[in-house]
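I have been asked to look over a protein record a colleague put together. Thanks in advance; the entry in question is below.
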Amino acid sequence: MSITWFIFETLGTIAFAFSGAMTGLSRRMDVFGVTVLAVMTGIGGGMLRDVLAGLTPPSALRSPDGLILSIATALVVSLLYEFVPISRRSKKWITFLYAVSDTCGLAAFTVTGALTSLYAHPEEAYVMPVMLGLITAIGGGIIRDMMAQRVPLVLRTDVYALASIIGGIAVCLAWQHLSAAAASWIGFSIVLILRCAAILFHWQLYHPHPGFHRKLRFPHD
């Protein structure tokens, strides 16, 4: 893999590990729980990506870099949480940092997922790269949210998976005409811009509503 892939893999791992650690702290987990959540968020999507791409064992099991980065991130976040006083203003900054880290992780892993497919299976020009980019980008977050016993972010936040899909398509298009580095930065930037714009301007996808003002109910409700 190229140096560009390594940069985005490292950025995505740290960003998602941070979001996983913060989720664990918000759920009042101990340091082990926080670390487990950070590790699963940081490397979970990449492991799914490698298995689906036929790269076994996954890179996270062949090289300890992602595991070490995730554990270190969890420990640093836990120490800062313990010793840094949290005011009302700092809570806003923590929420902001969580959104930034999750967005950066989404963008970075979209790129690494698409590049993994394009390097390993260059004959697959669009479907496989876009799908692997999406799975890499949302896989760790889904594991994080399920372990924290909450509805996964991708199912309740609009223009999240969609941003990853558009970014993956952009990587594939740029790959055919530009260098791998240029394609990577283009895809990363597009996901970042779309996700940030969605947060700032409250973009929403269409939400179906029951007709005639009736609420749909199922037997188990």
